[in-house]
């Protein structure tokens, strides 16, 4: 998918490294979509979805700790966006995934890639502007 590039950098090393890992998880999802169309992919989809959930929560905690520590003035708005995204991820129904696996993979890719790219480009890029460092 070639999703990460320097245009997504927020110039904060720990956040950039974690964003790269989120893109790596998306790449796994995209590779799964292209992989062997006939085989059952349910277990792999669930594994990727769980990894995405766990890593996103970990990343958001890191980012929020960084913002609090450095006096980020738009913290509550940013945290609200994080919480809304976690809710969005939690809406994926593990039972429905098995019914139409290809659609499920595409849905995960659409929701996550669009959100991550927009959030990084429009919200996370503002972090350095509003820090009291």
TrEMBL record:
Family note: Belongs to the hemerythrin family.
Residue span(s) of domain Hemerythrin-like: 12-126
Name of the molecule in the record: Iron-binding protein, hemerythrin
UniProt cross-references to InterPro entries, sorted A to Z: Haemerythrin_Fe_BS (IPR016131), Hemerythrin (IPR050669), Hemerythrin-like (IPR012312), Hemerythrin-like_sf (IPR035938), Hemerythrin_metal-bd (IPR012827)
Keyword Iron among record annotations: yes
Top-rank taxon, per record: Bacteria
A single GO molecular function term of this UniProt record: metal ion binding
Organism, scientific name: Clostridium sartagoforme AAU1
Assigned keywords, A-Z: Iron, Metal-binding
């Amino acid at each position: 998918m070639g999703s990460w590039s320097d245009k997504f950098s927020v110039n904060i090393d720990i956040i950039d490294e974690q964003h790269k890992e989120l893109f790596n998880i998306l790449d796994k999802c995209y590779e799964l979509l292209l992989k062997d169309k006939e085989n059952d992919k349910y277990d792999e989809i669930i594994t990727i979805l769980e990894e995405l959930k766990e890593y996103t929560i970990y990343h958001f905690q890191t980012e929020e700790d960084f913002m609090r520590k450095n006096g980020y003035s738009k913290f509550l708005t940013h945290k609200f966006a994080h919480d809304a995204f976690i809710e969005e991820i939690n809406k994926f129904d593990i039972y429905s995934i098995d019914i139409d696996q290809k659609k499920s993979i595409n849905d995960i890719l659409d929701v996550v890639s669009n959100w991550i790219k927009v959030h990084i480009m429009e919200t996370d890029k503002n972090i350095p502007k509003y820090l009291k460092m």
